[in-house]
Amino acid sequence: YIPPQVRKAQETIDDKKREELGRLKKIVNGLINRLSEPNLTSISGQLEELYMANSRKDMNETLTSILMNACVTAVAMPARLVMEHVLLISILHRTVGIEVGAHFLEAVVKKFDELSKSDAEGKECENLLALIAHLYNFHVVHCLLIFDILKKLVSTFTEKDIELILFLLKNVGFSLRKDDALALKDLITEAQRKANSADKKLKDQARVRFMLETMLALRNNDMRKIPGYDPEPVEKLRKLQRTLVHSSSTGKETQLRVSLESLLNADQVGRWWIVGSSWSGAPMISNADSKTQQKLRIGKVSSKIMELARKQRMNTDIRRSIFCVLMTSEDFMDAFEKLLK
Protein backbone atom coordinates (compact mmCIF):
# COMPACT_ATOMS: atom_id res chain seq x y z
CA TYR A 1 0.00 0.00 0.00
CA ILE A 2 1.37 3.46 -0.95
CA PRO A 3 -0.19 6.35 1.01
CA PRO A 4 -1.83 9.02 -1.22
CA GLN A 5 0.63 11.83 -0.39
CA VAL A 6 3.63 9.56 -1.16
CA ARG A 7 1.95 8.45 -4.39
CA LYS A 8 1.37 12.06 -5.36
CA ALA A 9 5.02 12.94 -4.65
CA GLN A 10 6.16 10.02 -6.81
CA GLU A 11 3.92 11.11 -9.67
CA THR A 12 5.29 14.66 -9.56
CA ILE A 13 8.87 13.29 -9.55
CA ASP A 14 8.04 11.17 -12.61
CA ASP A 15 6.48 14.13 -14.40
CA LYS A 16 9.45 16.31 -13.50
CA LYS A 17 11.88 13.63 -14.70
CA ARG A 18 9.92 13.19 -17.94
CA GLU A 19 10.00 16.92 -18.53
CA GLU A 20 13.77 17.05 -17.92
CA LEU A 21 14.40 14.13 -20.29
CA GLY A 22 12.22 15.79 -22.93
CA ARG A 23 14.23 19.00 -22.62
CA LEU A 24 17.52 17.07 -22.77
CA LYS A 25 16.36 15.18 -25.86
CA LYS A 26 15.48 18.45 -27.58
CA ILE A 27 18.93 19.96 -26.87
CA VAL A 28 20.85 16.82 -28.00
CA ASN A 29 18.66 16.48 -31.09
CA GLY A 30 19.39 20.09 -32.03
CA LEU A 31 23.14 19.48 -31.71
CA ILE A 32 23.08 16.23 -33.72
CA ASN A 33 21.02 17.84 -36.51
CA ARG A 34 23.68 20.52 -36.92
CA LEU A 35 26.56 18.03 -36.87
CA SER A 36 29.12 18.42 -39.63
CA GLU A 37 32.91 18.26 -39.88
CA PRO A 38 33.61 22.02 -39.38
CA ASN A 39 31.50 22.34 -36.20
CA LEU A 40 32.44 18.96 -34.67
CA THR A 41 34.70 20.65 -32.11
CA SER A 42 31.99 22.91 -30.70
CA ILE A 43 29.29 20.19 -30.73
CA SER A 44 31.50 17.64 -28.94
CA GLY A 45 32.37 20.36 -26.39
CA GLN A 46 28.69 21.14 -25.78
CA LEU A 47 27.85 17.45 -25.40
CA GLU A 48 30.70 17.08 -22.88
CA GLU A 49 29.18 19.90 -20.85
CA LEU A 50 25.80 18.16 -20.99
CA TYR A 51 27.45 14.97 -19.71
CA MET A 52 28.84 16.95 -16.77
CA ALA A 53 25.47 18.55 -16.01
CA ASN A 54 23.22 15.47 -16.36
CA SER A 55 23.30 11.85 -15.29
CA ARG A 56 25.47 9.63 -17.51
CA LYS A 57 22.67 7.07 -17.88
CA ASP A 58 20.18 9.66 -19.20
CA MET A 59 22.76 11.14 -21.55
CA ASN A 60 23.88 7.77 -22.90
CA GLU A 61 20.31 6.64 -23.55
CA THR A 62 19.29 9.95 -25.15
CA LEU A 63 22.36 10.20 -27.37
CA THR A 64 22.16 6.55 -28.47
CA SER A 65 18.45 6.72 -29.36
CA ILE A 66 18.92 9.98 -31.34
CA LEU A 67 21.95 8.64 -33.26
CA MET A 68 20.16 5.36 -34.00
CA ASN A 69 17.13 7.23 -35.34
CA ALA A 70 19.41 9.39 -37.47
CA CYS A 71 21.58 6.61 -38.92
CA VAL A 72 19.44 3.46 -39.01
CA THR A 73 16.96 4.03 -41.81
CA ALA A 74 15.45 1.85 -44.55
CA VAL A 75 17.53 3.66 -47.20
CA ALA A 76 21.34 3.52 -47.38
CA MET A 77 22.89 6.38 -45.43
CA PRO A 78 25.64 8.52 -47.02
CA ALA A 79 29.00 7.18 -45.79
CA ARG A 80 30.19 10.66 -44.84
CA LEU A 81 27.23 11.23 -42.52
CA VAL A 82 27.71 7.89 -40.73
CA MET A 83 31.44 8.64 -40.30
CA GLU A 84 30.78 12.03 -38.71
CA HIS A 85 28.25 10.57 -36.25
CA VAL A 86 30.63 7.78 -35.25
CA LEU A 87 33.55 10.22 -34.98
CA LEU A 88 31.50 12.21 -32.46
CA ILE A 89 30.94 9.04 -30.40
CA SER A 90 34.66 8.17 -30.57
CA ILE A 91 35.63 11.65 -29.30
CA LEU A 92 33.17 11.43 -26.38
CA HIS A 93 34.40 7.85 -25.75
CA ARG A 94 37.90 9.28 -25.16
CA THR A 95 37.01 12.55 -23.39
CA VAL A 96 33.98 11.60 -21.26
CA GLY A 97 34.50 7.89 -20.58
CA ILE A 98 34.41 4.48 -22.23
CA GLU A 99 30.81 3.83 -21.14
CA VAL A 100 29.67 6.26 -23.89
CA GLY A 101 31.11 4.12 -26.68
CA ALA A 102 30.20 0.88 -24.87
CA HIS A 103 26.52 1.85 -24.52
CA PHE A 104 26.23 2.88 -28.16
CA LEU A 105 28.10 -0.22 -29.40
CA GLU A 106 25.87 -2.56 -27.41
CA ALA A 107 22.70 -0.94 -28.76
CA VAL A 108 23.99 -1.14 -32.36
CA VAL A 109 25.11 -4.78 -32.08
CA LYS A 110 21.83 -5.91 -30.47
CA LYS A 111 19.80 -4.12 -33.15
CA PHE A 112 21.97 -5.69 -35.88
CA ASP A 113 21.50 -9.17 -34.40
CA GLU A 114 17.74 -8.65 -34.20
CA LEU A 115 17.46 -7.36 -37.80
CA SER A 116 19.81 -9.97 -39.31
CA LYS A 117 17.48 -12.69 -37.99
CA SER A 118 14.40 -11.02 -39.51
CA ASP A 119 13.73 -10.75 -43.26
CA ALA A 120 13.82 -6.95 -43.41
CA GLU A 121 14.01 -5.68 -46.98
CA GLY A 122 15.50 -2.26 -46.23
CA LYS A 123 19.11 -1.20 -45.81
CA GLU A 124 19.03 -1.11 -41.99
CA CYS A 125 21.57 -3.96 -41.65
CA GLU A 126 24.05 -2.17 -43.95
CA ASN A 127 23.66 1.04 -41.97
CA LEU A 128 24.23 -0.78 -38.67
CA LEU A 129 27.27 -2.56 -40.10
CA ALA A 130 28.62 0.78 -41.32
CA LEU A 131 28.30 2.10 -37.75
CA ILE A 132 30.18 -0.94 -36.35
CA ALA A 133 32.85 -0.69 -39.08
CA HIS A 134 33.52 2.98 -38.32
CA LEU A 135 33.52 2.33 -34.56
CA TYR A 136 36.42 0.02 -35.39
CA ASN A 137 38.01 2.57 -37.77
CA PHE A 138 38.00 5.22 -35.05
CA HIS A 139 39.44 2.83 -32.40
CA VAL A 140 36.33 2.48 -30.21
CA VAL A 141 36.17 -1.29 -30.66
CA HIS A 142 38.81 -3.98 -31.30
CA CYS A 143 38.97 -6.09 -34.50
CA LEU A 144 37.84 -9.12 -32.44
CA LEU A 145 34.20 -8.02 -32.79
CA ILE A 146 34.50 -7.48 -36.57
CA PHE A 147 35.95 -10.99 -37.02
CA ASP A 148 33.12 -12.43 -34.88
CA ILE A 149 30.52 -10.76 -37.11
CA LEU A 150 32.28 -11.91 -40.30
CA LYS A 151 32.50 -15.50 -38.98
CA LYS A 152 28.80 -15.42 -38.16
CA LEU A 153 27.92 -14.17 -41.67
CA VAL A 154 30.18 -16.75 -43.31
CA SER A 155 28.62 -19.56 -41.26
CA THR A 156 25.07 -18.73 -42.45
CA PHE A 157 26.13 -17.72 -46.02
CA THR A 158 22.87 -16.56 -47.61
CA GLU A 159 22.65 -13.96 -50.40
CA LYS A 160 22.05 -11.21 -47.87
CA ASP A 161 25.05 -12.35 -45.81
CA ILE A 162 27.34 -12.29 -48.86
CA GLU A 163 26.28 -8.70 -49.53
CA LEU A 164 27.02 -7.76 -45.90
CA ILE A 165 30.43 -9.51 -45.96
CA LEU A 166 31.37 -7.53 -49.07
CA PHE A 167 30.16 -4.29 -47.52
CA LEU A 168 32.18 -4.87 -44.33
CA LEU A 169 35.36 -5.95 -46.12
CA LYS A 170 35.21 -2.92 -48.41
CA ASN A 171 35.03 -0.63 -45.37
CA VAL A 172 37.56 -2.23 -43.02
CA GLY A 173 39.29 -5.05 -44.92
CA PHE A 174 42.75 -3.49 -45.10
CA SER A 175 42.64 -2.36 -41.46
CA LEU A 176 41.78 -5.96 -40.47
CA ARG A 177 44.73 -7.20 -42.53
CA LYS A 178 47.02 -4.79 -40.68
CA ASP A 179 45.65 -5.73 -37.22
CA ASP A 180 45.37 -9.51 -37.56
CA ALA A 181 46.47 -10.97 -40.90
CA LEU A 182 46.30 -14.55 -39.62
CA ALA A 183 42.65 -14.32 -38.54
CA LEU A 184 41.78 -12.75 -41.91
CA LYS A 185 43.55 -15.58 -43.74
CA ASP A 186 41.56 -18.17 -41.76
CA LEU A 187 38.34 -16.31 -42.53
CA ILE A 188 39.13 -16.24 -46.28
CA THR A 189 39.87 -19.99 -46.25
CA GLU A 190 36.56 -20.66 -44.46
CA ALA A 191 34.65 -18.46 -46.94
CA GLN A 192 36.23 -20.28 -49.91
CA ARG A 193 35.29 -23.64 -48.40
CA LYS A 194 31.73 -22.43 -47.80
CA ALA A 195 31.46 -21.08 -51.36
CA ASN A 196 32.66 -24.40 -52.82
CA SER A 197 30.18 -26.42 -50.79
CA ALA A 198 27.26 -24.02 -51.47
CA ASP A 199 24.44 -25.20 -53.74
CA LYS A 200 24.69 -24.72 -57.50
CA LYS A 201 22.31 -21.75 -57.69
CA LEU A 202 24.26 -19.73 -55.11
CA LYS A 203 27.69 -20.84 -56.36
CA ASP A 204 27.11 -19.58 -59.91
CA GLN A 205 26.18 -16.11 -58.77
CA ALA A 206 28.45 -13.27 -59.85
CA ARG A 207 28.21 -11.86 -56.31
CA VAL A 208 29.86 -14.93 -54.77
CA ARG A 209 32.67 -14.80 -57.34
CA PHE A 210 33.07 -11.09 -56.69
CA MET A 211 33.27 -11.71 -52.93
CA LEU A 212 36.02 -14.32 -53.39
CA GLU A 213 37.94 -11.97 -55.73
CA THR A 214 37.66 -9.19 -53.14
CA MET A 215 39.00 -11.52 -50.45
CA LEU A 216 41.94 -12.55 -52.63
CA ALA A 217 42.70 -8.88 -53.34
CA LEU A 218 42.70 -8.28 -49.57
CA ARG A 219 45.01 -11.21 -48.95
CA ASN A 220 47.42 -9.96 -51.63
CA ASN A 221 47.12 -6.37 -50.36
CA ASP A 222 45.95 -5.22 -53.78
CA MET A 223 43.82 -2.09 -53.30
CA ARG A 224 43.18 -1.53 -57.02
CA LYS A 225 41.13 -4.72 -57.29
CA ILE A 226 38.46 -3.38 -54.91
CA PRO A 227 36.17 -0.97 -56.74
CA GLY A 228 35.18 2.18 -54.88
CA TYR A 229 37.76 1.66 -52.14
CA ASP A 230 38.89 5.05 -50.87
CA PRO A 231 40.67 5.31 -47.50
CA GLU A 232 41.04 9.10 -47.82
CA PRO A 233 37.87 10.26 -45.94
CA VAL A 234 38.55 7.95 -42.95
CA GLU A 235 42.19 9.09 -42.74
CA LYS A 236 41.14 12.73 -42.86
CA LEU A 237 38.65 12.25 -40.02
CA ARG A 238 41.20 10.25 -38.00
CA LYS A 239 43.54 13.25 -38.18
CA LEU A 240 40.71 15.47 -36.97
CA GLN A 241 40.04 13.01 -34.14
CA ARG A 242 43.69 13.19 -33.02
CA THR A 243 43.60 16.99 -32.89
CA LEU A 244 40.29 17.00 -30.98
CA VAL A 245 41.27 14.59 -28.23
CA HIS A 246 44.66 16.32 -27.72
CA SER A 247 46.43 13.02 -27.25
CA SER A 248 49.64 11.70 -28.70
CA SER A 249 48.44 8.12 -28.24
CA THR A 250 46.53 6.25 -30.94
CA GLY A 251 43.53 5.57 -28.75
CA LYS A 252 44.19 1.81 -28.79
CA GLU A 253 44.27 1.76 -24.99
CA THR A 254 40.57 2.75 -24.81
CA GLN A 255 39.52 0.18 -27.43
CA LEU A 256 36.82 -2.18 -26.20
CA ARG A 257 38.18 -5.69 -26.68
CA VAL A 258 34.79 -7.37 -26.53
CA SER A 259 33.34 -10.30 -28.47
CA LEU A 260 29.95 -10.53 -30.17
CA GLU A 261 28.76 -13.18 -27.70
CA SER A 262 29.66 -11.00 -24.67
CA LEU A 263 27.71 -8.05 -26.09
CA LEU A 264 24.62 -10.12 -26.88
CA ASN A 265 24.63 -11.76 -23.43
CA ALA A 266 25.44 -8.54 -21.51
CA ASP A 267 22.13 -8.64 -19.59
CA GLN A 268 22.83 -12.17 -18.30
CA VAL A 269 26.55 -11.99 -17.48
CA GLY A 270 27.20 -8.29 -16.89
CA ARG A 271 29.36 -5.79 -18.79
CA TRP A 272 32.91 -6.62 -17.72
CA TRP A 273 34.35 -4.19 -20.29
CA ILE A 274 32.95 -1.18 -18.37
CA VAL A 275 34.66 -0.55 -15.03
CA GLY A 276 32.22 -1.17 -12.18
CA SER A 277 29.61 -2.87 -14.36
CA SER A 278 30.49 -6.52 -13.87
CA TRP A 279 27.83 -8.48 -12.07
CA SER A 280 28.28 -10.92 -9.20
CA GLY A 281 25.30 -12.99 -10.37
CA ALA A 282 27.35 -14.24 -13.32
CA PRO A 283 26.90 -17.97 -13.89
CA MET A 284 30.63 -18.68 -13.67
CA ILE A 285 30.78 -17.44 -10.05
CA SER A 286 29.44 -19.86 -7.46
CA ASN A 287 28.34 -18.31 -4.17
CA ALA A 288 28.72 -21.59 -2.26
CA ASP A 289 32.50 -21.57 -2.63
CA SER A 290 32.96 -18.06 -1.30
CA LYS A 291 31.09 -18.82 1.95
CA THR A 292 33.27 -21.70 3.05
CA GLN A 293 36.64 -20.07 3.56
CA GLN A 294 39.50 -22.45 3.69
CA LYS A 295 41.26 -22.69 7.03
CA LEU A 296 45.01 -22.33 6.76
CA ARG A 297 47.03 -25.29 7.95
CA ILE A 298 50.15 -24.22 9.79
CA GLY A 299 50.87 -27.42 11.70
CA LYS A 300 51.47 -27.58 15.43
CA VAL A 301 52.69 -24.28 16.87
CA SER A 302 53.51 -23.68 20.53
CA SER A 303 51.20 -21.51 22.61
CA LYS A 304 54.16 -19.18 23.26
CA ILE A 305 54.40 -18.32 19.54
CA MET A 306 50.61 -17.86 19.32
CA GLU A 307 50.79 -15.48 22.29
CA LEU A 308 53.56 -13.54 20.54
CA ALA A 309 51.41 -13.37 17.38
CA ARG A 310 48.52 -12.00 19.43
CA LYS A 311 50.77 -9.36 21.02
CA GLN A 312 51.98 -8.30 17.55
CA ARG A 313 48.30 -7.85 16.55
CA MET A 314 48.32 -10.65 13.97
CA ASN A 315 44.53 -10.62 13.86
CA THR A 316 43.69 -12.83 10.86
CA ASP A 317 44.47 -16.48 10.12
CA ILE A 318 46.77 -15.66 7.23
CA ARG A 319 48.75 -13.08 9.23
CA ARG A 320 49.13 -15.48 12.14
CA SER A 321 50.30 -18.31 9.87
CA ILE A 322 52.90 -16.11 8.10
CA PHE A 323 54.15 -14.85 11.48
CA CYS A 324 54.44 -18.41 12.82
CA VAL A 325 56.26 -19.60 9.69
CA LEU A 326 58.82 -16.81 9.98
CA MET A 327 59.35 -17.37 13.72
CA THR A 328 59.67 -21.16 13.60
CA SER A 329 61.69 -21.69 10.40
CA GLU A 330 65.21 -23.10 10.61
CA ASP A 331 66.62 -20.99 7.78
CA PHE A 332 65.52 -18.92 4.76
CA MET A 333 65.01 -21.99 2.53
CA ASP A 334 62.78 -23.61 5.13
CA ALA A 335 60.79 -20.36 5.50
CA PHE A 336 60.43 -20.14 1.73
CA GLU A 337 59.13 -23.71 1.45
CA LYS A 338 56.63 -23.25 4.27
CA LEU A 339 55.38 -19.92 2.89
CA LEU A 340 54.81 -21.53 -0.49
CA LYS A 341 52.75 -24.26 1.15
From TrEMBL:
The keyword Ligase does not apply. It is found in: Nucleus, Nucleolus. GO terms for cellular component: nucleolus. GO terms for biological process: ribosomal small subunit biogenesis. One of its GO terms (molecular function) is RNA binding. PANTHER family: CELL CYCLE CONTROL PROTEIN CWF22-RELATED (PTHR18034), NUCLEOLAR MIF4G DOMAIN-CONTAINING PROTEIN 1 (PTHR18034:SF4). Plays a role in targeting PPP1CA to the nucleolus. This is Nucleolar MIF4G domain-containing protein 1. It comes from Penelope pileata.
